Amino acid sequence: MHHGGRLIHKYYLDGSVTYFDYVDKDKMSLTEIDCMAVYLGHIGRIDYWYRVEDEGHLKRVEFD
Predict the structure, then answer these.
(1) d(Cα 58, Cα 11) in Å, to the nearest integer?
(2) What residue stretches are annotated with the PB1-like domain (predicted)?
């Protein structure tokens, strides 16, 4: 999970990367992602984004 950086024009800059083991990216829920973010010390409103492999840009996560 990339975190602690900033999003500029759909590109994520700076920040840190933290790895979570034993996570199935195809079956993750927003609740699990929220728990990971809280574990990393992030609180409040959090927007989640993901990178589309073929397109190379970020899209907002809107549902599980």
Answers:
(1) 7
(2) 1-61
